[in-house]
Specification:
Helix 1 crosses helix 3. This protein has 3 helices and 7 strands, in the order βααββββββα. A 7-stranded antiparallel β-sheet has the order 1-7-6-5-4-3-2. With 157 residues, it is an alpha+beta fold.
Amino acid sequence: MAEHTSSSITIEAAPADVMGVIADFARYPDWTGEVKEAEVLKVDDQGRAEQVRLVMDAGAIKDDQTLAYTWVSDHEVSWTLVKSQMLRSLDGTYLLKPTGPRTTEVTYRLTVDVKIPMLGMIKRKAEKVIIDRALAGLKKRVESIGSSGSADGASDG
């Protein structure tokens, strides 16, 4: 069984605002750094993304991957790899927990298995970097939207 890497961050926003940013895949290139393109391929009956194609560029690792998303609840979304050039598997989850009237603890769990041989310690360190960058970018994006009072159309989902 593959080990997962996990990290949490507190964001000054309600869970619905945080999930709104997570669900707005078209904006991922604006705040994630590694995602250069994001395209929703399939949506569920509630209009949420079910399959998303992401073009990634994380320096040494460049990939074109398709992920399948499961919207577990208003506070949890998970994804799994459908296809990739570089990865054998990828499973992730965002779990949101309200910690106050306008604060949310976001936990990001990630398990990655690459096609090329890699030491477990190095793989977990890479997972940790991905998670920490994603959480920092998510926090900055959500809080900047909250402070500007404009969600740039993020409320239509």
